[in-house]
Amino acid sequence: MAEIPETLESLRAENAMLRMQLNARAPPRHDAADRLIAELQRSLWDVQQRNLFLEQESHAEHNAIKQAYEVYINKLEEELHRCQVLLKKYTTTTATTPESK
Predict the structure, then answer these.
(1) Apex CA 26: angle with CA 99 and CA 75, to 5°?
(2) DSSP code per residue over 32-65
(3) Which residues of 57-72 are buried (b: 16+ CB within 10 A; e: fewer)?
(4) How many CB atoms lie within 10 A of CB 22?
(5) pLDDT tens digits for 45-74?
(6) pLDDT for 88-101, tens place per residue?
(7) What whole-number distance in Å separates Cα of residue 76 and Cα of residue 74?
(8) What's the pTM value of the predicted model, to 2 decimals?
(9) Domain layout of the chain by residue ranges
(10) How far is CA 77 from each of CA 40, 48, 54, rounded to the nearest angstrom?
(11) How far apart are CA 6 and CA 9, in angstroms?
């Protein structure tokens, strides 16, 4: 769990880079994708904070809750990564495709 803040910061930096690329080249309709990634990151951060709290409370009854949060964190991370890959793929495709006028 110690690497979670580093991973989260890395994802935020990658998201910021993708956001700058989108703002520079992508049409405005891709704001929805940007908002989705930001919302996923907020959800991921929130769940990670709750999970850290539960880890600090090492009571046996929290184990099931901790495991459920870990599964949820993994799903959020997978969805965030999938969205970022799709967005990066689209950004790369639109950057190499000439705009029609």
Answers:
(1) 135
(2) HHHHHHHHHHHHHHHHHHHHHHHHHS--GGGHHH
(3) eeeeeeeeebeebbeb
(4) 21
(5) 888 888 887 777 666 566 777 788 899 999
(6) 888 887 767 665 44
(7) 5
(8) 0.46
(9) 68-95
(10) 8, 11, 19
(11) 5
Q: Is 97 helix (H, G, I), strand (E, B) or coil?
A: coil
Question: What are the distances in angstroms from CA 71 to CA 51, 66, 77, 91?
Answer: 11, 9, 10, 30
User: 52, 66 in Cβ contact below 8 A?
Assistant: no
Structure tokens at 15: 């998201």
> Between the CA atoms of 49, 51, 54 and 56, what dihedral angle is there, to the nearest 10 degrees?
-70
Distance CA 73, CA 53 (A): 14
- Distance CA(19)–CA(11), nearest Å, equals 12
